[in-house]
User: Fold this.
Amino acid sequence: MRPTTPNISTSAALSQHALLSLEDQKVVDSARDILMRQRALNEEEAYSLLSEMADKRKTGMADISLQLINITKRLTV
Assistant:
């Protein structure tokens, strides 16, 4: 795994993750894992992508994560 230096958006995404409830953190972590597997991203890149997706849709990371999980479940059944 290559070493990365977090950029500002990655740091912001990780800080936002720290403010989530434990239940929301689990949802975000599950969505992060999906992105890591499907797109070959590292943890920081996956969090950053989730944060960007949430910002574009003007919703929270937990909400966008739940949407991603539900869509993935529908596509894999």
Observations:
- The radius of gyration is 12 Å.
- Residues 22-39 form the longest helix (18 residues).
